[in-house]
């Protein structure tokens, strides 16, 4: 059997980087647990707002949470009140899940900063394409038509050299689960210098979970 490796992890420190980075001090285990709680909470809370990824940058006196979204205006809100509500919700979640004392919560509150960045082209992001397909399937749209639409929208961009979409589960609610995939263009998954954006999304339907995998090939990238 072949050994399957996540396309991004395979390229870490080559042409990709970790989503959590910075100064982790003498207790990296505790800080990484905080990162996991923050990222899991925000992904659930902002599920419908087209969030591509959440980066967490740690400094000795600051924790910068960077949210990349195709709809940043909805997250920021009027006068930035949306971003402040998210910051307070993160603090509440940390107090509940990480069991912080009031003093630790005050110190943590002073450190946390929320930053929202725009994703200029959502159709070159595997994560956002996967979310779009999953949302369409949850609304009971025909899965083959949805996949073909997504592939055409991705390939309409010059940046995308190839795309593959794989979908599996009880498609259309049938009794036996199966897998179907469609692809267009080039997709050299064996080449390490190939810049491949990969994502896994889930459509939660009444008859079960449908898995959606998306690969987008953006050409070759060499170390700078």
Summarize, please.
The chain has 224 residues and is α/β, with parallel strands linked by helices. Helix content is 34%, strand content 29%.
Which features would summarize this protein structure in a list?
224 residues; alpha/beta; GMP Synthetase, Chain A, domain 3; Ribosomal protein S3 C-terminal domain; 2 domains; 4-stranded mixed sheet; 8 strands; 29% strand; globular
Annotated CATH homologous superfamily of the largest domain: K homology (KH) domain
Radius of gyration: 19 Å
Helix content bin: 25-40%
Provide the CATH architecture of the largest domain: 2-Layer Sandwich
Number of helices: 6
Description:
The chain is an alpha/beta fold and 224 residues long. The chain has 2 domains: 9-118, K homology (KH) domain (GMP Synthetase, Chain A, domain 3, 2-Layer Sandwich); 122-220, Ribosomal protein S3, C-terminal domain (Ribosomal protein S3 C-terminal domain), CATH 3.30.1140. Helix content is 34%, strand content 29%. It contains 6 helices and 8 strands, in the order βαββαααβααββββ. The chain has helices spanning 28-45, 72-76, 81-97, 102-111, 126-138, 143-155; strands at residues 20-22, 51-58, 63-69, 112-118, 162-169, 178-185, 194-205, 208-220. The strands form 2 sheets. It has a 4-stranded mixed β-sheet. Helix 1 (28-45) packs across helix 3 (81-97) and helix 3 packs antiparallel against helix 4. The longest helix has 18 residues, at 28-45. It is globular, with a radius of gyration of 19 Å. The two termini are 35 Å apart.
